[in-house]
Amino acid sequence: MTRPFTPLEEKIQTVLEKVRKELTGQNAANAVWTLKIKQALCNLALNVDSTYKTNASGEGLRGEWLFDLVWYREEEIDGEAHLTSLDLVMESEWLRDWSNLRDDFQKLLIARAAQKIMIFEVANEAAREDRLSKMQTALKSFNGRLDNANYMFAVYNVKTSLFKFYTEAAR
User: Which residues make beta-bridge pairs with 167?
Assistant: First the structure.
């Protein structure tokens, strides 16, 4: 893809690699991968900026709010919390068919967040190339995209048990 990783994306890669090392070889269910990734990224959010809130926390998951994971900020006005920013959104899809992946990726397209992360699994390198190409086409064809959004793709290959990371700018 087309641009260098941002410092935040480098931190996200480190977090995802830690989760991968923990779960590889354990035959962990997709739900376990999702839980561990969400917990790790929630912890990262607080390390990056203590004012971030997330839609997942602790040992369990709270209900998803629009996306698998969201980093956001709120401000209290007249005793009520009001959303002030949506800074990061993440979707993960462990089913390998394009239709499920496309549906989750399209959620990222419409998100008004500066950082968007798509985590998905492929059976082999040919599938990785196919999925990334399709997402790149979808990104370029979407008229409502934010010009300042950064996309990061974390692709888990089941044959190699490794993540590969890619970036794309919406511009």
Answer: 152
Tell whether the torsion through CA atoms of 164, 51, 144 and 98 is positive or negative. Answer: positive
Report which of 140, 29, 116 is spatially closest to residue 66, judged by C-alpha positions: 116
DSSP type of residue 62: P
Please provide residue 143's backbone torsions phi and psi, each rounded to the nearest 5 degrees: -75, -20
**Tokens of residue 21, six digits:** 């090392």
The closest alpha carbon to 116, from 43, 166, 48, belongs to: 166
Question: Counting Cβ atoms within 10 Å, is residue 156 exposed (0-12), middle (13-18) or buried (19+)?
Answer: buried
- Predicted confidence (pLDDT) per residue in 38-61, tens digit: 999 999 998 898 778 887 654 444
